[in-house]
């Protein structure tokens, strides 16, 4: 099993930002396979939609660092680990800007970028970027089309209903076309994953009950069936499990989730979000070392 962790980005784990490069460097030394960032813009005082099914926004999101800056910093001090986004809210970004940032990070890292894209859930964040939330699915589809054009053609051009990239010389390409993973469980999201993603980003939340058969095996089989119906080779569709421990979760809960995934699914990639469990960069590194020591990680 290849095991990754999130970079210090939110809450006490993020601190003042100075621990990012130290965490990234040491995590790679410990044998971590991947490092990840999320994409939060606001922590609304009176949210219309809360986080994770609640009515509130976690206090940790009051501190939030820029995902692109963190990945660039991690790329500069590591040589092996893959660098992932979990997830960038693609409808917020004009595709030309998004492609420029992601291509730069891929180049800085020597082709280690694993972009995970989604649509987000916060109405206030959509209001802040002046993008209608009702258009999020359509904008994500167009973003995927535009990224493909910008990453694979020169000159590149894209014209859609929501986004436009006028024809442009575009010789700066990723080291290899980044494998885009998509998040989501809704039927439309699953169809999009099956048609056009390199893989899916399912979620489990220790210590909540976790049955790999229902959480991963069955929906992944459904996705692969949809992929076959869309004319794709279903074997091409992978998955990376996101493990989001709640604040009350212990190391044993995380280790159990990793072990059950290894034993009961064909997934070989997971990462652990430390946002709600790590009190500082030092504490996070202690958790990383303990979790790796209790599992059987493989390098990236």
UniProtKB/TrEMBL annotation:
InterPro entries: Diverse_substr_monoxygenases, Lucif-like_OxRdtase_Rv2161c, Luciferase-like_dom, Luciferase-like_sf
Keyword Oxidoreductase assigned: yes
GO function terms (MF aspect): oxidoreductase activity, acting on paired donors, with incorporation or reduction of molecular oxygen
Superkingdom in the source lineage: Bacteria
The protein's Enzyme Commission number: 1.-.-.-
Transmembrane segments: none
Keywords per UniProt: Oxidoreductase
Entry protein name: TIGR03619 family F420-dependent LLM class oxidoreductase
Domain annotation Luciferase-like: ranges: 19-242
